[in-house]
Amino acid sequence: MTRYTLGVKIDNLFTELLGITIAAQYTKRTDKLEFLEELNRKFDNLKYFITILWEAKGLSAGKYAQLSQKLTRIGQMLGGWIALLKRNSPN
Q1: What pLDDT was estimated at residue 91?
Q2: pLDDT on residue 32
Q3: How far apart are CA 77 and CA 80, in angstroms?
Q4: What DSSP designation does 28 have?
Q5: Degrees, nearest 5: CA angle 37-76-44
Q6: Counting Cβ atoms within 10 Å, is residue 16 exposed (0-12), middle (13-18) or buried (19+)?
Q7: pLDDT-flagged residues of the chain (< 50)
Q8: Contact 40, 78 (CB under 8 A)
Q9: What is the largest CA-CA distance in the chain?
Q10: Span 29-45, pLDDT tens digits
Q11: What region, left, alpha or beta, does residue 17 occupy, with left being phi > 0 and alpha being psi -120 to 50 degrees?
Q12: What residues contact residue 87 under an 8 Å CB cut-off, 6+ apart?
């Protein structure tokens, strides 16, 4: 996989993540978990492809470290949102 192809894949994932996030934000609470679980799966894919890009030397170590910190924080927030909904779900 070339760096360009990885870049396109990462751009597409960012765009999809934004779309799912906006949809989840405006979805009824009872339906939110489905959107958040899809968001979590795509977010994991994004992290994977960013790691591959770094390994292919398409991203400097410094930029990768900065991005990884931000992605870790976003993952924690997303995980917390999912856990909250699961705790408060009537099922």
Answers
A1: 60
A2: 92
A3: 5
A4: -
A5: 50
A6: middle
A7: none
A8: yes
A9: 47
A10: 889 999 999 999 999 99
A11: alpha
A12: none
13-17-21 Cα angle (round to 5): 175
Say which DSSP state 13 is in: H
User: What residue spans of 1-91 are helical by DSSP H?
Assistant: 3-25, 29-55, 61-88
How many C-beta neighbours within 10 Å does residue 53 have? Answer: 20
Q: How far is CA 79 from the centre of its chain?
A: 11
CA distance linking residue 33 with residue 27, whole number of Å? 10
pTM of the entire predicted model: 0.87
